[in-house]
Amino acid sequence: MKLVQTRATQNEELKKVKLSEALLSPTSPHGGLYAPRKFPLISRPYWHELGGLKYADFALKIIKLFDFDVKNSLFKKAIARYESFDNPKKPAQLKKLKKNLYINELYHGPTRAFKDMALQPFGEILSGLAQERGENYLIMCATSGDTGPATLKTFADAKNIKAVCLYPENGTSEVQRLQMVTMQGQNLKTIGIKGDFDDAQNALKTLLSSDEFKGELKARNLSLSAANSVNFGRILFQIIYHAYAYARLLNKGVINDLTSIDIIVPSGNFGNALGAYYAKKMGANIDLIKIVSNENNILTEFFNTGIYDLTNKKLVKTISPAMDILISSNVERLLFDKFGAVRTNELMQDLKEKKCYQITQDELKELKKDFIADFCTDKECEKTIKKWAKKGVAIDPHTATCFKMVDKDRLNIITSTAQWVKFTPSMLKACDIEYKNEQEGLLKFAKILDENVTKSITSLFDAPVLHPDICEISQIKEKIIEWIKK
Ligand SMILES: *Cc1c(COP(=O)(O)O)cnc(C)c1O
């Protein structure tokens, strides 16, 4: 199967690319992305059969259905990366919280956020493809906090790869920042920028489409790619854990063929939610995908009014920094899937030129078949955190946004995107617990919960800072070139 461009003009023939090409070069014509045009449909009996498999085997079966050009042996190696997770057999852990409420814990990887679920295998594949082709790549990412550590980790000392990560100075939690500035690897570079996540993502998009920058890299034998969820390689692995949760519930007899479930997703760049939508398209009996935002609630507005309006918005800092985003890149893939490349191009051009786009009421109705959206304030989040902490369950501030969307009369799966350890100050504040400093507070809260904190987190506070650089947005390109020359 091939992927197609998401933006096109009237009568333009859509460019089709192989998965390997989309991984290595993720931007498509007119500044768009790549996405599948059709999805393999899994039959009812096959869902039951798949539900009996271990995660790694399930993942390989799902990938096989797409018939992509990447070799099965490389996918196998990629999936084997899950062996570094807390429980190698269960990288994603589906747990029952109470009647009708499950939580899909996706943070059991090396950097303690769900980004590892996709970036761990993705890193193996990208490095593998680069080696097969005898090419060298500069992989860039912009991060609102969790993509950065996960990207650096997956590429640390990978062959034929250099990785650069841009993070907003003061825009991430302290643990997220420490993860990035202390990450070891000869081939890694972390740069803090004076701006917010949208600035970082815009800088990344500008560099990705800059012929001048690419020329300078070429002169040093490097091609450019990106590890953000603009890359379809990320999305592929994000379909799998939603589909697996559904298949497991079916296999265990919690639901039957006629029962539909709802999936609640704390959203930022919309990659995770898109994965759930694609799982639905593959036949998982998901009724609603519930999109939750923090006070940066542009997605709530969009799914309720059909208007995506950046003109009157300013990014607000919240206790869920990984969702402090206004430009949600993956909504584009949803628009493409529902309304086609020509319409998507129109809307995306409006966004670029007018900082606003509006879909019709009929189009909105179409989106509402699959999605509803709401947002959660920090105050509401803190209440949820406190309530569950009292029961001995630590819910991080991102995942906490989901609870207000639970429908007691239906089976809900909350998608849990990070472990609380990355956000200790917010957790302790929510629970009215005093602490001296973050390190002491972390251990104190862990003791209350009777949880172990991984060494990857506890060791951060004493680790040497290897990447101290902070720069203006206008200096990013120079900084990168300077580093590459070394
Ligand atoms: C990245 C992230 C999100 C948002 O996920 P998207 O796929 O960008 O919508 C939510 N929570 C956490 C903890 C994250 O790291």
From TrEMBL:
It is an enzyme of class 4 (lyase). Residues 95-339 form the Tryptophan synthase beta chain-like PALP domain. It catalyses: O-phospho-L-homoserine + H2O = L-threonine + phosphate. Keywords: Amino-acid biosynthesis, Lyase, Pyridoxal phosphate, Threonine biosynthesis. InterPro entries: Ser/Thr_deHydtase_PyrdxlP-BS (IPR000634), Thr_synth_N (IPR029144), Thr_synth_N_sf (IPR037158), Thr_synthase-like (IPR004450), TrpB-like_PALP (IPR001926), TrpB-like_PALP_sf (IPR036052). Residues 9-79 form the Threonine synthase N-terminal domain. One of its GO terms (molecular function) is threonine synthase activity. Its EC number is 4.2.3.1. Its cofactor is pyridoxal 5'-phosphate. Pathway: Amino-acid biosynthesis; L-threonine biosynthesis; L-threonine from L-aspartate: step 5/5. Belongs to the threonine synthase family. NCBIfam families: thrC. This is Threonine synthase. It comes from Campylobacter gastrosuis. The gene is thrC.
